[in-house]
Amino acid sequence: MSNYGAMYEKQFVRNLNRYMSIRQNIGRRVERILADPYINTEMLADAGGKLNLLGCRSARVDRNFRIVFVICEECRSIPECEYCLCEDLPDKTVVFLTVGPHDKAYSMKGLTEIMQIL
Ligand SMILES: [Zn+2]
């Protein structure tokens, strides 16, 4: 039973198809995030001064894979958040931004030009 609604950024869906072999694991992790996005997830910050990930969170899928997302109720209170896609969405919405191997996920590869919710 999910308490939070889900929105998916284009890059997230694209990567879900790219990483077919762990798609099921990602799906299970997404379900757990929607049940409670604050449990076992990590707040991100300024990643080495290059990318500002303030307002975003990450969740582990496995040793290497991470899901990066925002929770609208949290992200709304962080004006510095550069990945806020929460406009017109209810507070209890999780926006899934990207998924992939650690380094690629945190570099938000492919995301900044697109930023489009499906
Ligand atoms: Zn937001």
Secondary-structure blueprint of this entry?
Blueprint: E1 5-8, H1 10-18, H2 23-35, E2 42-43, E3 46-47, E4 51-52, E5 57-60, E6 65-71, H3 72-75, E7 93-101, H4 102-106
Parallel strand pairs: 1-7
Antiparallel strand pairs: 2-5, 3-4, 5-6, 6-7
The chain binds zinc ion (ZN).
Classification by helices and strands? alpha+beta
Bound molecules: zinc ion
Count of helical stretches: 4
The appropriate CATH architecture is: 2-Layer Sandwich
**What's the SSE pattern?**
EHHEEEEEHEH
According to CATH, what is the class?
Alpha Beta
Strand order of the largest sheet: 1-7-6-5-2
Uncertain residue segments: none
How much of the sequence lies in strands comes to 25-35%
Give me the CATH fold name. Answer: YaeB-like fold
Rounded mean pLDDT is 88
The CATH homologous superfamily name equals: RelE-like
Major sheet details: 5 strands, mixed
Span between termini = 22 Å
Q: Residue share in helices? A: 25-40%
Radius of gyration based on Cα positions: 13 Å
